[in-house]
Amino acid sequence: MDHFLYRGGVLHAEDVPLPEIAEAVGTPFYCYSTATLTRHFRLFDEALDGVDHLVCYAMKAASNQAILKTLAGLGAGMDVVSGGEYARARAAGVPGERIVFSGVGKTRDEMRLALEGGVRQVNVESEPELHALSEVATGLGLSVPIAVRVNPDVDARTHAKIATGKSENKFGIPIARAREVYAEAARLPGIEVVGIDVHIGSQLTDLEPFRLAYRKVAELTDVLRADGHDIRRLDLGGGLGIPYTRSNEAPPLPVEYGAMIREELGHLGCEIEIEPGRLIVGNAGILVSRVIYLKSGEGRDFLILDAAMNDLIRPAMYDAHHDIVPVIEPAPGVAQTPYDVVGPVCESGDTFARGRMLPPLAEGDLVAFRSAGAYGAVMSSEYNTRPLIPEILVNERDFAVIRARPTFDEMINRDTIPEWL
Ligand SMILES: *Cc1c(COP(=O)(O)O)cnc(C)c1O
């Protein structure tokens, strides 16, 4: 459910008509709804009601300071995957004890930053990383709580580029080697084992892969406890999928996910961490764009938008589908025609959809890409020297620019000319 609905024939974000924002900031722009963000965070939090838990928002999905502050204010922790994300979380007021540091290649500098600033736990993904972390922690005279990310060799049945829990993926330590690695962790100075971490992928539309992975985690908890490790925390990762189309998909709800977690892991008495990203912010954000031209090709009509692959790369990168809707509601029963929806970038990959059935559109019309809140703005670039597009946050009848569009001069002035030129 989201808060982008037609009212009086015009698509709104909460109580704000989108043409009003387009008028104020120009197009294209990302627009997020506070009410949807809040609702989705609470769904996860309530799904684990009665269980000692922390919902750590995976901020790589959308990391604008205003989004982080909104979620932090609701009690969210953060899952960070780089030093930059750690700094962002702290800048948004998230205390170190609510920040989990994940990621397959943390540098010593990044570790130092997190240890000095305070961190709830570092999720370790390899033995070399474990040794580096021990060195950094002892160098600072600290002890760092860790979980080892295990790779359960489970097929997440999602797009290959976002599956992370099979043995051929680069993530985590093969679960069969976990005892060895935990024994090593227990021997190393500056390392305090507190739990187990697992994350098998993103956009999962079925609970079964999670269940299989969590069962393996439960078995491993027993084994590691018998080996003398104090396993008191389980980090179950993120990955619950969202509906990208209105019609056929119905991924499991957070409440069903929470019930499954209790079933599989409730008896262990561990504190539970989950790291949802996409489900919190995906349907809380849209991308609004304007039609520049309509162009008739051979047997196809191209709808050329002012948004492009550099603004929203998911279709080019993951063959992702985004519903595209006109901001002015079409009359009921109006005939739809197929369009190839494209951006202005000089690559054929800059195609959002082929043969998409849409009501008739004209130059200057506004359209909205739904479900663009996650892995949208954060993956954008200035390819073709197209400015990063603004991000807008709506809260009931208010809206605010939470990241402004840079001017051409601001973009150009980031380059510096060597003295010999
Ligand atoms: C990407 C990621 C997540 C979030 O995944 P979503 O599909 O956005 O919920 C959580 N944990 C880790 C370690 C990740 O890399």
Low-confidence stretches are none
Number of strands: 21
Q: What is the total number of structural domains? A: 2
**Total DSSP helices:** 12
Biggest sheet, open or closed, and with what strands and sense? 9 strands, mixed
The bound ligands are: pyridoxal-5'-phosphate
Query: Superfamily at the CATH H level of the largest domain?
Result: Alanine racemase
CATH class (first level) name of the largest domain: Alpha Beta
Plain-language structure description:
This protein has helices at 18-25, 34-47, 65-73, 83-91, 108-117, 127-139, 178-187, 208-226, 254-265, 278-281, 314-318, 408-412; strands at 4-7, 10-13, 16-17, 29-33, 53-58, 77-80, 99-101, 121-124, 144-151, 173-174, 191-197, 233-235, 271-274, 285-296, 301-305, 324-326, 337-342, 351-358, 366-369, 391-395, 398-403. It is α/β, with parallel strands linked by helices and 421 residues long. It has two domains: 4-31 and 282-412, Lyase, Ornithine Decarboxylase, Chain A, domain 1, CATH 2.40.37; 103-274, Alanine racemase (TIM Barrel). Strands 4, 14, 15, 16, 17, 18, 19, 20 and 21 form a nine-stranded mixed beta sheet that branches. An eight-stranded parallel barrel has the order 5-6-7-8-9-11-12-13, surrounded by five helices. Strands 1-2-3 form a three-stranded antiparallel beta sheet. A hairpin with a 2-residue loop joins strand 2 and strand 3 (16-17). Helix 4 (83-91) packs parallel to helix 5 and helix 8 packs parallel to helix 9. The longest helix is centred in the middle third of the chain and has 19 residues, at 208-226. The radius of gyration is 23 Å and the shape is globular. The structure holds pyridoxal-5'-phosphate. Pyridoxal-5'-phosphate is lined by residues 58, 60-61, 79, 81, 102, 199, 202, 237-239, 275-279, 374.
